[in-house]
Amino acid sequence: MNTRRLSIVALVLVLLLPAMACAGKDSLSDAMTRQLQVNRQRYGTAGQALLVTHNGKEVFRGVDGYANLQAKEKITARTVFPVYSLSKLFVSTLVMQLVEQGTVDLDKPASVYLQGLPDGWRGITVRQFLNHTSGVPDYFSDNEQPTAFPASMQDVFASLGPKPMLFAPGTRARYTQTNYLVLSALLEAHYGQPYPQIAGERIIRKLGLKHTWLGRPSLPASGVALGYLGKNGKPQRETEIAWPAYSYGHAELYLTLDDLARFLQALSSGELVSKASLQQFWQPQNLSDGRRGDFSTGWEYGESGAYRHAGHDGGARVRVRVVYKDSLDDDTYVFIYLSNGSAKNVWSRTLIGSAMATVAPDKFPAEVLSEKLIVYALASSTGPEDGKKIRSGTSLQGEALERTINNTGYAALEFLSADAAIRVLALNTEFFPASANAWDSLADGYKAKGEQAKAQQLYDKARQLQADQQQGQAKP
Question: Which of 181-195, 327-341, 373-387 has the lowest mean pLDDT?
Fold first, then answer.
């Protein structure tokens, strides 16, 4: 790949984003289509589909690439995608309905509503299971794919009961599938039905989702996108996991772009849970020490500029976000970015961020900056003036600026290269030379590159800065 040519094309795109967004729907459509192409060229996406709405009206819809690379079967608007952990959003929504009805209290132990949990789990609240702050161990690991799953959820709970907790409930967050097994069991206990039947009646059929399936055995024979993982710089077929039916509350959801849009539009417009309740559920939620958690009633919570967003990742390759300013009644966007994998295993957060930056660059400064930083990371050469232009070209300041650069640097480290990450992370040491975290992150970049001596030097600098700051704070 000609990196220099790609970086120039991408840089031109970034510079033109504001003009494109203001020029009208046709120009915006062109810009969004171009962004899909840039993402394919930059990350080697196999196939992708993107839908954006604003206040319930479609802003953009586009598809790109292949559902099956070997057969050259193209992605279409009717392609069925595996969306992995987006299945958790069905469970979260169903639990929110029970809370709104007064049947379930988020801050009571789940064991109040569910029998058969291990003794050590009986004080863990419904909210803690929803927000992955329960501390329960996982029953499944991507690094150790089991040859066979336990026969039932109760067998899973029985096998995990003797294992130690990962941490005290509410003190930390760790994403585990077990949390949503517990919540699926809670729903089954309340309704007296298997989870697939509950989701089918209360969401899938209620909303008329005619192209939505729970579980691979129920899928149609054709029109389903295959999953790919990047290996040795190329997308290769992903090994499929034979999930048991009791896992469908955290995995094995398949649907089309339109069906997913229908679900998100119904939810954000108050069809499934009232808007007033939803806005309360989507408030930022804190850990026991006051630090902000990652989830709000099961939805990933974030902010960009004056906007907040709730959403979720699926398999690190699909992501949805409901983005709103003051309330869900006005200035509300829904972003849906589906892919079936990429050569570089690009994060879904990066893909959906590129869409946000293109649609409304004046509203989403963090996403715009992240796109510019990726262009900067991939450029064939850069100088001090380029860094100055990046800083002067964003409205972000202070902690928000440092955080966005840091997050983008680690993203580059994951799916671009150590050199690309170092180029981005070094900016934080220029902009925030007194930040211990900035130097520590840059050290991580050099460590990943294999330059251990340089990394150690930077780690030492970070520790010294931190010690100096702590000493300064301790002085009367």
Answer: 373-387
**Average pLDDT over all residues of the chain:** 93
| DSSP β-bridge partners for residue 323 | 309, 333
How many residues does the structure list for the chain? 476
Model confidence over 265-317: pLDDT tens digits? 999 999 999 999 999 999 999 999 999 999 999 999 999 999 999 999 999 99
**Residue 417 has which token pair?**
């290269």
- For 1-360, CATH number out of 3.40.710.10, 3.40.50.150, 2.40.50.180, 2.40.30.20 equals 3.40.710.10
How many CA atoms are closer than 13 Å to the CA of 221, on its beta-carbon side?
0
**For domain 364-476, which architecture applies?**
Alpha Horseshoe (1.25)
425, burial (CB in 10 Å: exposed 0-12, middle 13-18, buried 19+) = buried
Give the C-alpha separation, 16 to 322, whole Å: 25
What's the 3-state SS for 360-395?
CCCCCHHHHHHHHHHHHHHCCCCCHHHHHHHHHCCC
Return the DSSP state at 291: P
Model's pTM, two decimal places?
A: 0.91
Q: What is the mean pLDDT of residues 102-126?
A: 98
Closest alpha carbon to 311 in 83, 81, 44, 31: 83
**Residue 72 backbone zone (phi > 0: left; psi -120 to 50: alpha; other: beta):** left
**Which residue carries 């559902």 as its tokens?**
67
- In degrees, to the nearest 5, what angle opens at C-alpha 183 toward C-alphas 177 and 189? 140
Nearest C-alpha neighbor of 202 from the set 113, 266, 280, 277? 266
Helix (H) or strand (E) holding 319: strand 318-327
C-alpha distances in Å from residue 61, one per residue of 28, 66, 182, 265: 11, 16, 36, 15
